[in-house]
Amino acid sequence: MRKISIFVALTLIFMTGIISSSSQAFGQSGPKVLMIPREGYSIDLDLMIKMEVGVMTILLKRAGFEVDVATTSGFPILGPTQKIEKVLRLSEINLNDYAGIIMPCMAVGEFPGPPVAPLAMEAAKKCLADGKPVAAAANSATILAEAGLLKGKKYAYVRDPLKMTKTQTRTDPRFEGAIYSGTGVVQDGKIITSGICPNLERFSGMQNGTVELTNKFIAAIGSK
Question: Is a pLDDT exceeding 90 seen at residue 144?
């Protein structure tokens, strides 16, 4: 099933030419979704723009949503060949205009990684307080954890961040009080998380949750 989903996503990417300007394609008007990529260190931006941001955007637009991309800086996100050109500033966003927030992993890296943007945390808090869904892929779950939004909630991650292993020599205290529930896509109320992004799939061989995460997010927007 995963191979079929990725094949369909790749076919759609090729046919629509969406990647070079993911927030401008399709030219349709509908309910809006806010996408907040993490800024900072990234592994293989081309892969993550194409197979994470691109796939999420295609699925959202096929479901009838407009997609705005916003970060703290508002600067374009540029890989060697792939790019997201239209990026808004989070400080200028009216969150009341959006039906939910989805946050790609963007291969941010291991703990502690780059700092979590306060504006991203505040956006997630308001969205959930307003009863709207928030989806976070892989390492973007740290935004929810640092904001205190995972306390008492089930969540997915590539590993349990509170357990040490041979390769993980320290724990991530931001996840204290949260309920680690594996690497697959996990939904707890309006919070939806996945443990494996395209980059992690490449290195681990575990199933990439991008398609399932986005579809659950779409379904959560439609549910009351």
Answer: yes
Determine the Cα–Cα distance for residues 194 and 141; give it in Å rounded to an integer. 8
As for how many domains the chain has, the answer is 1
- Give Dmax over CA atoms of the chain in angstroms: 50
Backbone dihedral region of 116: left (phi > 0), alpha (psi from -120 to 50 degrees) or beta?
beta
Strand, coil or helix: what is 133? coil
Domain of residue 147, residue span:
2-222
CA pair distance 129, 25, nearest whole angstrom: 30
Tell me: the pLDDT tens digits for 10-62? 444 443 444 433 433 334 467 999 999 988 878 899 999 999 999 999 999 99
CB 80 within 8 A of CB 71: no
Mean pLDDT of the chain: 87
Give the span between the Cα atoms of 80 and 20, in whole angstroms: 12
